[in-house]
Amino acid sequence: MTLFSCTGLSKAYFEKVLFDDIAFGIEQGERVGVIGRNGAGKSSLLRIVAGLDEADAGTIARNRDVRFEYLTQMPLFDIDQTPLDAVVEAYDQRHGHLEEWELEVRAKRYLGKLGIHDVFTNVRTMSGGQRKRVALARALMAEPDLLILDEPTNHLDADSVQWLQDELASSPRALFLVTHDRYFLDAVCNRIIEIDQHKLFTYDGSYETYLERKEALLAVQDATATHLRNKLRSELAWLSKGAKARRTKQKSRIDWIAKMQAEPEKTERRDIDIELGHRFLGGRIIDAETISAEAGGRVLFRNVTWRAKPGDRIGIIGPNGAGKSTLLATLAGRRPPSSGYVSIGDTVSLGYFEQEIRDLNDNATVLANVRDIAEYIDVGIGRERYITAKELCDRFDFSPKQQHAYVHTLSGGERRRLGLLRILMGNPNVLFLDEPTNDFDIGTLSALEDYLQYFKGVLLIVSHDRAFLDKTVDTIWSFDGDGVVKEYPGNYSAYLERIELRSKADAAKQDAPKVRATAPLSEEKKKLTFKERKEFEALESDISKAEERKQELENILNGGTTDYQTIAAASEEYAALLSTLEIATERWLELAERA
User: Fold this and answer.
1) Residues 41 and 18 in one domain
2) Same domain, yes or no, for 462 and 370?
3) Same domain flag for 141 and 165
4) What is d(CA 570, CA 554) in angstroms, rounded to the nearest whole number?
5) Do the domain assignments include residue 509?
6) Is residue 442 part of a domain?
7) Whole-angstrom distance, CA of residue 22 vs CA of residue 140
8) What band does 337 get if pLDDT is binned at 50, 70 and 90?
9) How many domains does the chain have?
10) How many Cα neighbours within 13 Å face the side chain of 133?
11) Which contacts qualify for 152-155: CB closer than 8 Å, 24 or more apart?
């Protein structure tokens, strides 16, 4: 079943063309990821499909029986309500009737998995990141036919990203999403569409498959371009022999040469090349001695000691609200610790990239904003000793036209790229990055990873992007609860392996089945009503039947059948059954504690 189809779509902002005369559609069950450079029009395309924006030209045919749910990058809530109410009300009763307690259990599950545990606060008083997570839970609760997600992993910690990845990968619903998280993109999507040079290109398969096919395509294009250039030189040499020679040749051949010369040269796909010098780092860089921090009466971290060394490459991970950004700010000297001290050496030139870009002049050009930091960087070596602001803009893929554009015309990702460029223009030897991957396109991320690979100073990164951490750090600091920050050698994947091994070892030590700990309850809460006791007895039977059906479906899915309809139906039923079984089990446990 076709969910929607687009024909001849075009969109431009001011004089900037985003895409022109593109066509595509999405079928039921497809999971489509959109990629492209910052400012290419990815978010605009999502908004047009969702019906929240209009194309300049073209048409969209939407299936009237299909429900769309759209998650914007920065959602707003117009009324005072709790996260629980906001999520519960999103449930579409078309999917079947659920009891109020079932809705609440499901809503709390989604919110909890996304790091929202206070479900009774006012959602309008929450931070932007918290509102994004509430809106994501709401979108999942709605159970639409097509879920449209714009950067769904922003503001999620690594555990929440992993849960969301597994949830969407096992869901039968269709997806249309933009994300910079390459692991997420590869695990969830079965089709990639790329916006490049104002056109749209489709690649069936995962993100890994896209990379393979894109590389092969670029190799063919390079070979074709070389062939055309050689042929052009030959033809131009022939034409230069004079009028007499030209009159002896076919007019069509001369016209062909004229056409080749008149055609605009295709813009090269440029990778950002950053070759900055490194300032001298003295013997004392940053010394932190038994520092602690508190917020709202809660200990964020305690007794952290660190003596920075050249070449330190540290990734900081932990749940949302654990104190990662606070630790970064404390080590940078921007926030005093509750106890202990931080001392920063005289030779330190610290570049600090924050989550919010606040210091751009919207009424100045891109180039002027960079020149505010410095006219040039003195790398101190070689004949080409100086890198000018313009040269750095070129290397960061700001075209000459964009360099003279006002900052208020930039997309969100372009603004963040400009903010990062301003920091690197300061030529730091200590670099602190707080969630640097948010809103960056994959090309910018790859370029930043290349730069950090050769960065010889001290690097601290707070990030939930697993691929980025794997490529840039060799040590992990993990917030393990109760204010403890524990160090693990290796990148993020190595950290995960150690955690999994530790979990398996802990499980092996448990010879007896775990007993569920329960808090003391009042006499009133211990008693079940007549209705609840009937529900409790029915749940035991329902759970038993569901477990049997789950085993049957697993046998079908693992049985080697190649019938597509059978597999699709079993997969859809299996995903729905897992959700129902989890809700029923949680309710049974709740009643069992009181029985």
Assistant:
1) yes
2) yes
3) yes
4) 9
5) no
6) yes
7) 29
8) very high
9) 4
10) 27
11) 152/71, 152/177, 152/179, 153/179, 153/180, 153/181, 153/184, 153/464, 153/465, 154/73, 154/129, 154/438, 154/439, 155/128, 155/129, 155/130, 155/320, 155/438
- Judged against a pLDDT cut of 50, whether residue 380 lies above it is answered with yes
Task: Check if the beta carbon of residue 83 is closer than 8 Å to that of residue 123.
Answer: yes
507 domain residue, yes or no: no
Instruction: Please indicate, yes or no, whether residues 578 and 469 belong to a single structural domain of this protein.
Output: no
Average pLDDT value for residue range 141-156: 93
Dump pLDDT digits (tens) for 483-532: 999 999 999 999 988 888 777 777 666 654 444 443 443 344 457 788 88
Give the residue numbers spanning the domain of 381.
312-324+347-501
- The region of weakest confidence among 370-379, 400-409, 465-474, 545-554 is 545-554
Same domain flag for 251 and 316: no
Give the C-alpha distances (Å, rounded to integers) separating 387 from 147, 178, 188, 592: 45, 34, 41, 70
Residues 131 and 121: beta-carbon distance below 8 Å: no
Answer yes or no: do 226 and 367 share one domain.
no
Each residue of 40-60: pLDDT tens digit?
A: 999 999 999 999 999 999 999
Report pLDDT for 267. 45
| CATH of residue 368 | 3.40.50.300
Query: 194, 210, 226: which is the final residue of a domain?
Result: 210
Are 205 and 24 a contacting pair, CB within 8 Å? no
The residue type found at 368 is A
Closest residue by Cα to residue 138 from 47, 66, 71: 71
**In the numeric block, which tokens belong to residue 242?**
């004079």
Q: Which residue do the tokens 């990055």 mark?
A: 433
Same-domain check for residues 37 and 176: yes
Query: Are residues 53 and 160 part of one domain?
Result: yes
Q: CA angle, corner 159, sides to 518 and 318, nearest 5? A: 90
What is the C-alpha separation between 167 and 586, in angstroms, rounded?
18
Residue 177 has pLDDT above 90, yes or no: yes
